Amino acid sequence: VQLQASGGGFVQAGGSLRLSCSASAPPFSRYAMGWFRQAPGQEREFVAAISWSGGSTHVADSVKGRFTISRLNAKNTVYLQMNSLKLEDTAVYYCAARRDPAWGPPDYWGQGTKVTVSS
Prior knowledge:
Structural class: mainly beta
Radius of gyration: 13 Å
Low-confidence stretches: none
Shape: globular
Helix content: under 10%
Largest sheet: 7 strands, mixed
Number of strands: 11
Number of helices: 0
């Protein structure tokens, strides 16, 4: 399984970005998907996850109400819409996949895409 994340970049605080993760994981619809992030000098942390159908999502408290995870199985893609970005959201964001319809510890990781939030 290969995961390709994109959409990172520079944004001012209060702005928005949408990250995408394309997966070569047939059938994509049988994988739960998630996003993690790692800020400089910190451990990787969970951000959000979504079940295979999209019917169940989990979002970390630190981003609840600002970030939304979604997926489009027809395009083998999962998205992370990030609104009201804060300086502390600066990190490398990684997508991950789990060989299960429901979320749990990931089985696969993609390369990261860097998000930098400036004041």
